[in-house]
Amino acid sequence: MGVNKTSIGTYGQARKVGSFLGVVDYDDTTSLGALEFPLSRNSKATEFSDGLIKEVDENVPRFEDGALLLEPQSTNLIAYSEDLDATASSSWWNNQDSTSVLNYDSSPDGQIKSTLLYPTTSGANRSLNENFGTILSGGTYTFSVFAKSAGKNWLRFLHLNASAGNATTHFDLDNGTVGTTNIYTDVGMENYGNGWYRCYATVVASGSTDIVYLMLTDTDNSNISTTNGTDGIEIWGAQIEQLSYATSYIPTNGSAVTRLADVVSGASNENIFNSEEGVLFAEVSAFADNTFKRISLNNGSFLNSVFFDFDNTNNLLGKLIVNGNEVVRISASGLNIEDNNKIALSYKVNDFKLFVNGSKVGTDFVGATPIELNTLSLDLGGGQIFYGKVRDLQVFNRALTDTELQQLTS
């Protein structure tokens, strides 16, 4: 008997409205049919594919760089995400000793929508700033904007009313690196090609109003910018959301816009999963937001399940529950769940192993296996929904050897 394997992998990209497909293989060669995962998201959204940010219709799965993208609900609180100019949207944006040139060049969506921001005089605090209104004191917010060098290489964020004072960070648009940072809890840059970076920073607010400055500067850890009347930076796609990380771009034009959550239902087939032994494998990156996120093989509930648990302290555990009782708990300590990780949990009576990125991180040699496994889910019992990127998800219907598990997760 060969290895009966269920995989979404690249097959998952056979998407359609309301679902994406997995496929059931025998010996990795013969298809036994499709396994359909229902998906809903009752709003449009965006994805980054083929080098461009593209709009995706409601209830259509999104794939970025070969990975299924699953996100929670989020709202872009900035009413004008692309008109980055005091003249176009004076109630939101203010130019301070700077000029904005709208529709300057190609933006990350392939349209001529970028804004050139340059200093009109030399000196301190040459910037574009916005006040996005009422916020929750003590709330965590992430600001992001797409930026590209247009003669100047440094972009500075200045965030007033942060919990510990005014937060600052600096982005090197020439080398794609983050410079000096103060108070922000998380900062980073994502490369979108053609010189564009998405710069983001997370902060805890201290008051009920908030102001963010996009500041031109000549060097790291500085607020001074000189001018020659032309050199500046291109910007596009500003976003503020009440989350500890930046989600996919949400365009706005006059008011805040909410993208609803991706909701994936489990794919069920009682004939293809083995309750006595097997392997649950995933190649994923998860959002580190201190919430529970789970990927499971189950019997339609949490009472009998094999699952990966990304817990509320951003750790990974492999677990088994039999008749409502936890029988196996193996921890992968020190793992950065935001990285792309390959993880496999092998289960068989009194023989349980957790492999991560080519290494065996834990074992348990006492325990029974769940009964009547029939559903592969990106949650557990309807809760603890997995949010992040799923590059591959596989179930094998026999327990693999250490050598096979090492190869699978390398």
Q: Secondary-structure map with pairings?
A:
Elements: E1 4-7, E2 19-26, E3 30-40, E4 45-49, E5 52-56, E6 62-64, E7 67-70, E8 74-76, E9 93-96, E10 98-101, E11 115-119, E12 123-124, E13 127-134, E14 140-150, E15 154-162, E16 165-172, E17 177-182, E18 186-193, E19 196-204, E20 209-217, E21 224-225, E22 232-241, E23 257-259, E24 263-264, E25 267-268, E26 277-286, E27 293-298, E28 305-310, E29 316-322, E30 325-332, E31 341-348, E32 351-356, E33 359-364, E34 375-377, E35 388-396, H1 402-409
Antiparallel strand pairs: 1-2, 1-35, 2-3, 3-24, 4-5, 6-7, 7-35, 8-23, 9-13, 10-11, 11-22, 12-21, 13-20, 14-19, 14-22, 15-16, 15-20, 16-17, 18-19, 25-34, 26-31, 26-35, 27-28, 27-34, 28-29, 29-30, 31-32, 32-33
Description:
- The protein is an all-beta fold and 410 residues long.
- It folds into two domains: 4-72 and 264-409, Jelly Rolls (Sandwich); 74-259, Galactose-binding domain-like (Jelly Rolls), CATH 2.60.120.260.
- It is built from one helix and 35 strands.
- The chain has one helix at residues 402-409, and strands spanning 4-7, 19-26, 30-40, 45-49, 52-56, 62-64, 67-70, 74-76, 93-96, 98-101, 115-119, 123-124, 127-134, 140-150, 154-162, 165-172, 177-182, 186-193, 196-204, 209-217, 224-225, 232-241, 257-259, 263-264, 267-268, 277-286, 293-298, 305-310, 316-322, 325-332, 341-348, 351-356, 359-364, 375-377, 388-396.
- The strands form seven sheets. Strands 1, 2, 3, 6, 7, 24, 26, 31, 32, 33 and 35 form an eleven-stranded antiparallel β-sheet that branches. A six-stranded antiparallel β-sheet has the order 9-13-20-15-16-17, with no helix packed on it.
- The longest helix is centred in the C-terminal third of the chain and has 8 residues, at 402-409.
- It is elongated and about 75 Å long.
- The two termini are 25 Å apart.
- Mean pLDDT is 89; it is low at 10-14 and 26-32.
